Amino acid sequence: MDMMIHFPDAVSEKLQNLDDVNLFVVSVVQEALVERRDLEQWQREKIEQAVARADSGRGEFVDHDSVKNWLSSWGTDQETAPPKPMPGR
Question: Origin, by domain of life (predicted)?
Fold first, then answer.
């Protein structure tokens, strides 16, 4: 599969100063795409695992508002303790 990638002018100018630019660019782009794909796959798997665990009723959870309120208290004179987890549903 052939692909064309357009870089901003500033990036293209920097790349033109390198030896074997085409090989270098292809190599970097391939590596970046593979790493991005692997990261997205890992994220999807972790999200699916977390949703399955939440749906199963196992584990403990802290609701969003409790965490938000706790974090908002950081750095104030009224800093609160971390919220207590609730049992799963």
Answer: Bacteria
